[in-house]
Amino acid sequence: MTPTKLDVRGEICPYPMMRTVSALKKLSGDEMVLEVVTDHAPCLETIPTQAARLGFRTDIEETGASEWRIMITRTEAEDEG
Amino acid sequence: MTATARNTALALTAWATAAVVYGTAHAVDTEFSMFWVFGLAFGFVLQRARFCFTSAFRDIFLLGHARTMKGLLLGLAVSSVGFGLVMSRQVPMTSLGVYPPSANVLPLGIHTGLGGLLFGIGMVVAGGCVSGSLYRMGEGYVASWVAFAGVMGGLLVSAYTWNWWWDAHIATAPRFWLPHWIGHPGALVVTLLALAAVYVWVVSVEHRAGVIVPPASGARPQAAPSQTESVADDLRSTLRRLFVQGWPVLPAGAVLGGLNVLLFTAREPWGFTGEVSRWSIATASLFDAAPGPLAGVETLPGCVLVPSDGLVFNHMLFLVLGMFFGSFAAAVGAGEFKLRVPKRPVRYAQSLGGGVIMGYGSGIGMGCTIGAFFSAIPSLAVNGWVFGGFLAIGAWIGTHIIRRIE
Fold first, then answer.
1. Which one in B108, B140, B154, B362 has a CA-CA gap of 20 to 30 Å to B214?
2. Ramachandran angles phi, psi of B2, nearest 5°
Protein backbone atom coordinates (compact mmCIF):
# COMPACT_ATOMS: atom_id res chain seq x y z
CA MET A 1 0.00 0.00 0.00
CA THR A 2 1.50 3.35 -0.98
CA PRO A 3 1.64 5.74 1.96
CA THR A 4 -0.71 8.74 2.10
CA LYS A 5 1.24 11.82 1.00
CA LEU A 6 0.98 15.34 2.36
CA ASP A 7 2.77 18.20 0.60
CA VAL A 8 3.09 21.25 2.86
CA ARG A 9 5.80 23.06 0.90
CA GLY A 10 5.38 26.84 0.94
CA GLU A 11 3.20 26.76 4.05
CA ILE A 12 3.71 29.37 6.76
CA CYS A 13 4.46 28.59 10.39
CA PRO A 14 2.96 26.59 12.14
CA TYR A 15 0.74 24.99 9.47
CA PRO A 16 3.21 22.29 8.35
CA MET A 17 2.97 20.85 11.87
CA MET A 18 -0.78 21.48 12.27
CA ARG A 19 -1.74 19.94 8.92
CA THR A 20 0.48 16.92 9.65
CA VAL A 21 -1.29 16.38 12.97
CA SER A 22 -4.71 16.65 11.26
CA ALA A 23 -3.63 14.18 8.58
CA LEU A 24 -2.37 11.72 11.22
CA LYS A 25 -5.70 11.91 13.04
CA LYS A 26 -7.55 11.21 9.77
CA LEU A 27 -5.49 8.11 8.88
CA SER A 28 -7.66 5.02 8.97
CA GLY A 29 -6.65 2.25 11.37
CA ASP A 30 -4.99 0.09 8.72
CA GLU A 31 -2.84 2.95 7.32
CA MET A 32 0.56 2.70 8.93
CA VAL A 33 2.58 5.47 7.24
CA LEU A 34 2.14 9.16 6.38
CA GLU A 35 4.69 10.81 4.09
CA VAL A 36 5.12 14.57 4.56
CA VAL A 37 7.12 16.80 2.20
CA THR A 38 8.18 20.17 3.65
CA ASP A 39 10.57 23.08 3.16
CA HIS A 40 9.87 24.55 6.61
CA ALA A 41 12.74 23.51 8.88
CA PRO A 42 11.16 24.51 12.22
CA CYS A 43 8.56 21.74 11.81
CA LEU A 44 11.36 19.15 11.88
CA GLU A 45 11.50 19.88 15.61
CA THR A 46 7.76 20.04 16.30
CA ILE A 47 6.41 17.17 14.17
CA PRO A 48 8.38 14.36 15.91
CA THR A 49 7.00 15.42 19.29
CA GLN A 50 3.40 15.78 18.08
CA ALA A 51 3.65 12.48 16.22
CA ALA A 52 5.03 10.69 19.28
CA ARG A 53 2.12 11.97 21.36
CA LEU A 54 -0.25 10.35 18.82
CA GLY A 55 1.65 7.05 18.77
CA PHE A 56 3.86 7.56 15.71
CA ARG A 57 7.60 7.48 15.04
CA THR A 58 9.29 9.89 12.59
CA ASP A 59 12.19 9.48 10.18
CA ILE A 60 13.52 12.59 8.47
CA GLU A 61 15.44 12.55 5.21
CA GLU A 62 16.86 15.62 3.45
CA THR A 63 15.79 15.33 -0.19
CA GLY A 64 17.18 18.59 -1.55
CA ALA A 65 18.24 22.11 -0.62
CA SER A 66 16.00 22.99 2.34
CA GLU A 67 13.56 20.21 1.51
CA TRP A 68 12.77 17.19 3.61
CA ARG A 69 10.70 14.01 3.48
CA ILE A 70 9.27 12.97 6.84
CA MET A 71 8.08 9.38 7.12
CA ILE A 72 5.70 9.02 10.04
CA THR A 73 5.03 5.42 11.06
CA ARG A 74 2.49 4.03 13.52
CA THR A 75 4.51 2.51 16.36
CA GLU A 76 2.15 -0.47 16.85
CA ALA A 77 2.98 -1.43 13.25
CA GLU A 78 6.52 -2.12 14.39
CA ASP A 79 5.39 -3.99 17.50
CA GLU A 80 3.49 -6.41 15.27
CA GLY A 81 6.28 -6.70 12.71
CA MET B 1 30.79 22.67 -7.68
CA THR B 2 29.50 21.00 -4.51
CA ALA B 3 26.59 22.49 -2.58
CA THR B 4 28.93 23.47 0.26
CA ALA B 5 31.34 25.26 -2.09
CA ARG B 6 28.46 27.07 -3.78
CA ASN B 7 26.98 28.14 -0.43
CA THR B 8 30.39 29.34 0.74
CA ALA B 9 30.87 31.38 -2.44
CA LEU B 10 27.38 32.92 -2.09
CA ALA B 11 27.99 33.72 1.57
CA LEU B 12 31.36 35.32 0.87
CA THR B 13 29.73 37.46 -1.83
CA ALA B 14 26.99 38.51 0.60
CA TRP B 15 29.48 39.40 3.36
CA ALA B 16 31.66 41.28 0.85
CA THR B 17 28.59 43.28 -0.16
CA ALA B 18 27.90 43.96 3.53
CA ALA B 19 31.50 45.20 3.88
CA VAL B 20 31.09 47.57 0.92
CA VAL B 21 27.90 48.97 2.46
CA TYR B 22 29.79 49.34 5.74
CA GLY B 23 32.61 51.30 4.07
CA THR B 24 30.23 53.56 2.18
CA ALA B 25 28.06 54.22 5.23
CA HIS B 26 31.14 54.82 7.38
CA ALA B 27 32.31 57.54 5.01
CA VAL B 28 28.97 59.35 5.40
CA ASP B 29 28.26 58.93 9.12
CA THR B 30 29.90 56.54 11.60
CA GLU B 31 26.52 56.03 13.32
CA PHE B 32 25.22 54.55 10.05
CA SER B 33 28.01 51.98 9.80
CA MET B 34 27.82 51.06 13.50
CA PHE B 35 24.08 50.40 13.32
CA TRP B 36 24.58 48.42 10.10
CA VAL B 37 26.95 46.11 11.98
CA PHE B 38 24.52 45.74 14.88
CA GLY B 39 21.73 44.95 12.41
CA LEU B 40 23.86 42.32 10.65
CA ALA B 41 24.73 40.72 13.99
CA PHE B 42 21.11 40.58 15.20
CA GLY B 43 19.90 39.20 11.86
CA PHE B 44 22.69 36.63 11.75
CA VAL B 45 21.93 35.28 15.24
CA LEU B 46 18.14 35.30 14.71
CA GLN B 47 18.54 33.21 11.55
CA ARG B 48 21.22 30.83 12.87
CA ALA B 49 19.06 29.88 15.86
CA ARG B 50 15.72 30.50 14.08
CA PHE B 51 14.96 32.61 17.15
CA CYS B 52 11.26 33.20 16.65
CA PHE B 53 9.58 35.29 19.38
CA THR B 54 6.16 34.22 18.07
CA SER B 55 6.89 30.54 18.58
CA ALA B 56 8.28 31.33 22.06
CA PHE B 57 4.80 32.48 23.12
CA ARG B 58 2.60 30.45 20.77
CA ASP B 59 4.17 27.01 21.28
CA ILE B 60 3.52 27.13 25.03
CA PHE B 61 -0.21 27.06 24.19
CA LEU B 62 -0.15 25.21 20.88
CA LEU B 63 2.29 22.42 21.76
CA GLY B 64 3.27 22.67 25.40
CA HIS B 65 6.82 23.44 24.19
CA ALA B 66 8.96 26.11 25.81
CA ARG B 67 12.18 25.68 23.83
CA THR B 68 12.37 29.23 22.44
CA MET B 69 10.85 30.77 25.57
CA LYS B 70 13.74 29.39 27.62
CA GLY B 71 16.24 31.09 25.31
CA LEU B 72 14.22 34.28 25.47
CA LEU B 73 14.19 34.19 29.31
CA LEU B 74 17.97 33.68 29.38
CA GLY B 75 18.40 36.63 27.00
CA LEU B 76 16.23 38.77 29.27
CA ALA B 77 18.28 37.75 32.32
CA VAL B 78 21.58 38.60 30.61
CA SER B 79 20.34 41.95 29.32
CA SER B 80 18.67 42.84 32.65
CA VAL B 81 22.05 42.54 34.38
CA GLY B 82 23.76 44.59 31.65
CA PHE B 83 21.05 47.26 31.41
CA GLY B 84 20.90 47.42 35.22
CA LEU B 85 24.62 48.12 35.41
CA VAL B 86 24.49 50.80 32.69
CA MET B 87 21.42 52.48 34.24
CA SER B 88 22.98 52.47 37.73
CA ARG B 89 25.74 54.66 36.25
CA GLN B 90 23.30 56.87 34.32
CA VAL B 91 21.02 57.47 37.34
CA PRO B 92 23.05 56.83 40.52
CA MET B 93 20.47 58.54 42.78
CA THR B 94 17.13 56.82 42.18
CA SER B 95 15.44 58.93 44.87
CA LEU B 96 15.56 62.02 42.63
CA GLY B 97 12.75 60.63 40.45
CA VAL B 98 14.52 61.01 37.09
CA TYR B 99 14.50 58.31 34.41
CA PRO B 100 17.46 56.88 32.48
CA PRO B 101 17.52 58.90 29.24
CA SER B 102 17.19 56.19 26.59
CA ALA B 103 15.81 53.13 28.43
CA ASN B 104 12.37 51.90 27.41
CA VAL B 105 10.46 53.12 30.46
CA LEU B 106 7.16 53.96 28.77
CA PRO B 107 3.82 55.41 29.89
CA LEU B 108 1.73 52.55 31.24
CA GLY B 109 -1.99 52.33 30.52
CA ILE B 110 -4.76 50.73 28.48
CA HIS B 111 -2.69 51.34 25.33
CA THR B 112 0.07 49.07 26.74
CA GLY B 113 -2.29 46.16 27.35
CA LEU B 114 -4.30 46.57 24.17
CA GLY B 115 -1.09 47.04 22.16
CA GLY B 116 0.37 43.81 23.57
CA LEU B 117 -2.89 41.93 23.07
CA LEU B 118 -3.27 43.00 19.42
CA PHE B 119 0.41 42.36 18.74
CA GLY B 120 0.15 38.85 20.25
CA ILE B 121 -2.90 37.96 18.15
CA GLY B 122 -1.43 39.45 14.98
CA MET B 123 1.95 37.75 15.25
CA VAL B 124 0.39 34.29 15.63
CA VAL B 125 -2.08 34.83 12.78
CA ALA B 126 0.69 36.19 10.50
CA GLY B 127 3.12 33.40 11.47
CA GLY B 128 5.83 35.74 12.78
CA CYS B 129 6.41 39.01 14.63
CA VAL B 130 8.33 41.96 13.16
CA SER B 131 11.83 40.64 13.91
CA GLY B 132 10.72 37.14 12.89
CA SER B 133 9.32 38.43 9.61
CA LEU B 134 12.56 40.33 8.96
CA TYR B 135 14.75 37.26 9.37
CA ARG B 136 12.33 35.05 7.41
CA MET B 137 12.28 37.63 4.61
CA GLY B 138 16.02 36.96 4.44
CA GLU B 139 15.35 33.20 4.27
CA GLY B 140 13.01 33.62 1.30
CA TYR B 141 9.57 33.32 2.93
CA VAL B 142 7.26 35.28 0.60
CA ALA B 143 4.48 35.41 3.24
CA SER B 144 6.84 37.27 5.59
CA TRP B 145 7.22 40.05 3.00
CA VAL B 146 3.42 40.30 2.96
CA ALA B 147 3.32 40.36 6.78
CA PHE B 148 5.92 43.15 6.84
CA ALA B 149 3.83 45.19 4.39
CA GLY B 150 0.89 44.61 6.75
CA VAL B 151 2.95 45.88 9.69
CA MET B 152 3.76 49.05 7.74
CA GLY B 153 0.04 49.52 7.03
CA GLY B 154 -0.94 48.92 10.66
CA LEU B 155 1.66 51.41 11.89
CA LEU B 156 0.23 54.01 9.52
CA VAL B 157 -3.31 53.39 10.82
CA SER B 158 -2.02 53.76 14.37
CA ALA B 159 -0.42 57.08 13.38
CA TYR B 160 -3.84 58.36 12.20
CA THR B 161 -5.28 57.52 15.64
CA TRP B 162 -2.20 58.48 17.67
CA ASN B 163 -3.39 61.93 18.73
CA TRP B 164 -6.59 60.44 20.19
CA TRP B 165 -4.57 57.90 22.16
CA TRP B 166 -2.18 60.64 23.30
CA ASP B 167 -4.96 62.94 24.54
CA ALA B 168 -7.11 60.22 26.08
CA HIS B 169 -4.48 57.99 27.68
CA ILE B 170 -0.79 58.31 26.93
CA ALA B 171 -0.15 61.97 27.87
CA THR B 172 -1.34 61.45 31.44
CA ALA B 173 -0.23 57.83 31.89
CA PRO B 174 2.38 57.22 34.61
CA ARG B 175 5.79 55.65 33.95
CA PHE B 176 6.88 53.00 36.45
CA TRP B 177 10.59 52.31 36.82
CA LEU B 178 11.35 49.66 39.46
CA PRO B 179 14.60 51.29 40.73
CA HIS B 180 12.55 54.31 41.89
CA TRP B 181 10.82 52.07 44.45
CA ILE B 182 13.42 49.51 45.45
CA GLY B 183 16.75 50.85 44.18
CA HIS B 184 18.97 49.34 41.48
CA PRO B 185 19.94 46.08 43.24
CA GLY B 186 16.37 45.46 44.41
CA ALA B 187 14.94 46.08 40.93
CA LEU B 188 17.43 43.68 39.37
CA VAL B 189 16.80 40.96 41.97
CA VAL B 190 13.00 41.27 41.58
CA THR B 191 13.31 41.10 37.77
CA LEU B 192 15.55 38.02 37.88
CA LEU B 193 13.23 36.30 40.37
CA ALA B 194 10.23 37.06 38.16
CA LEU B 195 12.06 35.60 35.13
CA ALA B 196 12.86 32.50 37.20
CA ALA B 197 9.18 32.21 38.16
CA VAL B 198 8.18 32.29 34.48
CA TYR B 199 10.80 29.61 33.81
CA VAL B 200 9.29 27.37 36.50
CA TRP B 201 5.83 27.91 34.98
CA VAL B 202 6.87 27.00 31.42
CA VAL B 203 8.72 23.90 32.62
CA SER B 204 5.56 22.81 34.44
CA VAL B 205 3.56 23.39 31.23
CA GLU B 206 6.02 21.15 29.36
CA HIS B 207 5.61 18.40 31.93
CA ARG B 208 1.83 18.53 31.71
CA ALA B 209 2.02 18.31 27.90
CA GLY B 210 3.78 14.94 27.97
CA VAL B 211 6.55 13.53 25.82
CA ILE B 212 8.93 15.89 23.98
CA VAL B 213 11.15 14.40 21.28
CA PRO B 214 14.52 16.18 21.10
CA PRO B 215 15.39 17.85 17.75
CA ALA B 216 16.19 15.33 15.03
CA SER B 217 19.91 15.18 14.46
CA GLY B 218 19.73 14.41 10.74
CA ALA B 219 17.87 17.50 9.61
CA ARG B 220 20.03 20.27 10.97
CA PRO B 221 23.01 18.63 12.62
CA GLN B 222 24.07 19.82 16.02
CA ALA B 223 27.74 19.53 16.92
CA ALA B 224 28.89 15.93 16.86
CA PRO B 225 31.54 14.72 19.31
CA SER B 226 34.68 15.80 17.53
CA GLN B 227 37.56 13.47 16.78
CA THR B 228 39.63 15.96 14.83
CA GLU B 229 43.14 15.37 13.62
CA SER B 230 44.65 18.80 13.10
CA VAL B 231 44.30 22.47 14.02
CA ALA B 232 42.82 23.11 10.57
CA ASP B 233 40.18 20.43 11.15
CA ASP B 234 39.35 21.94 14.51
CA LEU B 235 38.97 25.42 13.04
CA ARG B 236 36.89 24.05 10.18
CA SER B 237 34.50 22.39 12.58
CA THR B 238 34.25 25.63 14.58
CA LEU B 239 33.35 27.52 11.41
CA ARG B 240 30.74 24.88 10.58
CA ARG B 241 29.20 25.22 14.03
CA LEU B 242 28.97 28.99 13.59
CA PHE B 243 27.87 29.28 9.96
CA VAL B 244 26.30 25.98 8.84
CA GLN B 245 24.87 24.05 11.78
CA GLY B 246 21.95 25.51 13.67
CA TRP B 247 22.69 27.35 16.89
CA PRO B 248 21.05 25.98 20.02
CA VAL B 249 18.50 28.42 21.36
CA LEU B 250 20.07 29.07 24.78
CA PRO B 251 23.42 30.51 23.59
CA ALA B 252 21.52 32.43 20.92
CA GLY B 253 19.27 34.01 23.55
CA ALA B 254 22.29 34.95 25.66
CA VAL B 255 24.08 36.48 22.62
CA LEU B 256 20.96 38.49 21.65
CA GLY B 257 20.75 39.78 25.24
CA GLY B 258 24.46 40.66 25.18
CA LEU B 259 24.16 42.45 21.83
CA ASN B 260 21.25 44.44 23.25
CA VAL B 261 23.42 45.54 26.20
CA LEU B 262 26.15 46.66 23.77
CA LEU B 263 23.65 48.60 21.65
CA PHE B 264 22.16 50.22 24.79
CA THR B 265 25.66 51.17 25.93
CA ALA B 266 26.42 52.62 22.50
CA ARG B 267 23.20 54.59 22.14
CA GLU B 268 19.76 53.05 22.80
CA PRO B 269 18.11 49.65 23.33
CA TRP B 270 17.26 47.32 20.43
CA GLY B 271 13.98 48.20 18.71
CA PHE B 272 12.85 49.32 15.27
CA THR B 273 9.08 49.70 14.84
CA GLY B 274 9.52 53.47 15.22
CA GLU B 275 11.81 53.38 12.20
CA VAL B 276 9.39 51.21 10.23
CA SER B 277 6.62 53.73 11.04
CA ARG B 278 8.86 56.45 9.56
CA TRP B 279 8.89 54.47 6.30
CA SER B 280 5.08 54.10 6.38
CA ILE B 281 4.46 57.77 7.08
CA ALA B 282 6.98 58.85 4.43
CA THR B 283 5.26 56.56 1.90
CA ALA B 284 1.85 58.00 2.84
CA SER B 285 3.15 61.54 2.44
CA LEU B 286 4.06 60.74 -1.18
CA PHE B 287 0.30 60.37 -1.71
CA ASP B 288 -0.54 63.42 0.45
CA ALA B 289 -1.96 61.05 3.06
CA ALA B 290 0.48 61.69 5.92
CA PRO B 291 -1.18 61.75 9.35
CA GLY B 292 0.12 65.22 10.30
CA PRO B 293 1.82 66.23 13.56
CA LEU B 294 1.96 63.49 16.21
CA ALA B 295 1.50 64.91 19.70
CA GLY B 296 4.14 64.19 22.30
CA VAL B 297 6.20 61.66 20.37
CA GLU B 298 9.42 63.62 20.79
CA THR B 299 9.05 63.33 24.57
CA LEU B 300 8.98 59.51 24.57
CA PRO B 301 11.84 56.98 24.41
CA GLY B 302 11.70 53.58 22.74
CA CYS B 303 9.97 52.68 19.51
CA VAL B 304 7.34 55.41 19.51
CA LEU B 305 6.07 56.52 16.07
CA VAL B 306 8.50 58.69 14.11
CA PRO B 307 7.07 61.38 11.84
CA SER B 308 8.62 61.64 8.41
CA ASP B 309 11.55 64.05 8.42
CA GLY B 310 11.95 64.19 4.64
CA LEU B 311 15.26 62.30 4.85
CA VAL B 312 15.89 58.82 3.49
CA PHE B 313 18.84 57.67 5.60
CA ASN B 314 19.23 57.57 9.32
CA HIS B 315 21.03 55.17 11.66
CA MET B 316 17.89 53.12 12.38
CA LEU B 317 17.36 52.40 8.68
CA PHE B 318 20.76 50.71 8.69
CA LEU B 319 19.76 48.65 11.75
CA VAL B 320 16.57 47.32 10.09
CA LEU B 321 18.15 46.67 6.69
CA GLY B 322 21.14 45.11 8.47
CA MET B 323 18.86 42.62 10.26
CA PHE B 324 17.34 41.57 6.95
CA PHE B 325 20.69 41.32 5.20
CA GLY B 326 22.41 39.56 8.11
CA SER B 327 19.73 36.88 8.02
CA PHE B 328 20.01 36.58 4.23
CA ALA B 329 23.80 36.14 4.41
CA ALA B 330 23.43 33.59 7.21
CA ALA B 331 20.76 31.66 5.29
CA VAL B 332 22.67 31.43 1.99
CA GLY B 333 25.83 30.40 3.86
CA ALA B 334 24.01 27.50 5.49
CA GLY B 335 22.13 26.54 2.34
CA GLU B 336 18.86 27.49 4.02
CA PHE B 337 17.70 30.17 1.60
CA LYS B 338 14.76 29.10 -0.55
CA LEU B 339 11.81 30.99 -2.01
CA ARG B 340 8.78 29.65 -0.17
CA VAL B 341 5.53 30.59 -1.86
CA PRO B 342 2.28 29.73 -0.02
CA LYS B 343 -0.20 27.87 -2.24
CA ARG B 344 -3.36 28.67 -0.30
CA PRO B 345 -4.68 32.21 -0.94
CA VAL B 346 -5.90 32.51 2.67
CA ARG B 347 -2.26 32.56 3.86
CA TYR B 348 -1.63 35.88 2.08
CA ALA B 349 -4.77 37.32 3.68
CA GLN B 350 -3.78 36.19 7.14
CA SER B 351 -0.17 37.38 6.77
CA LEU B 352 -1.41 40.80 5.66
CA GLY B 353 -4.22 40.98 8.23
CA GLY B 354 -2.04 39.67 11.06
CA GLY B 355 0.61 42.20 10.02
CA VAL B 356 -1.86 45.10 10.14
CA ILE B 357 -3.09 44.07 13.62
CA MET B 358 0.53 43.72 14.77
CA GLY B 359 1.46 47.07 13.30
CA TYR B 360 -1.43 48.82 15.04
CA GLY B 361 -0.55 47.13 18.34
CA SER B 362 3.08 48.19 18.10
CA GLY B 363 1.99 51.75 17.23
CA ILE B 364 -0.08 52.29 20.36
CA GLY B 365 2.10 49.96 22.49
CA MET B 366 5.22 51.87 21.40
CA GLY B 367 7.16 48.81 20.33
CA CYS B 368 7.04 45.16 19.33
CA THR B 369 8.30 41.94 20.92
CA ILE B 370 11.69 43.69 20.89
CA GLY B 371 11.22 47.34 21.87
CA ALA B 372 8.20 47.02 24.17
CA PHE B 373 9.24 43.67 25.67
CA PHE B 374 12.79 42.35 25.06
CA SER B 375 14.25 45.84 25.67
CA ALA B 376 11.64 47.01 28.21
CA ILE B 377 11.96 44.27 30.85
CA PRO B 378 15.77 44.81 31.05
CA SER B 379 15.00 48.55 31.37
CA LEU B 380 13.51 47.41 34.71
CA ALA B 381 10.24 49.00 33.60
CA VAL B 382 6.81 47.71 34.59
CA ASN B 383 5.44 48.39 31.08
CA GLY B 384 7.62 45.53 29.72
CA TRP B 385 5.91 42.99 31.98
CA VAL B 386 2.40 44.27 31.19
CA PHE B 387 3.09 44.24 27.42
CA GLY B 388 4.59 40.73 27.74
CA GLY B 389 1.63 39.40 29.74
CA PHE B 390 -0.81 40.67 27.13
CA LEU B 391 1.43 39.30 24.34
CA ALA B 392 0.93 35.88 25.94
CA ILE B 393 -2.86 36.33 26.17
CA GLY B 394 -2.92 37.53 22.55
CA ALA B 395 -0.83 34.53 21.45
CA TRP B 396 -3.28 32.23 23.25
CA ILE B 397 -6.22 33.83 21.39
CA GLY B 398 -4.20 33.66 18.17
CA THR B 399 -3.70 29.89 18.49
CA HIS B 400 -7.50 29.49 18.61
CA ILE B 401 -7.86 31.62 15.48
CA ILE B 402 -5.25 29.75 13.41
CA ARG B 403 -6.82 26.39 14.30
CA ARG B 404 -10.00 27.62 12.59
CA ILE B 405 -8.30 28.63 9.32
CA GLU B 406 -6.27 25.50 8.73
1. B140
2. -75, 165
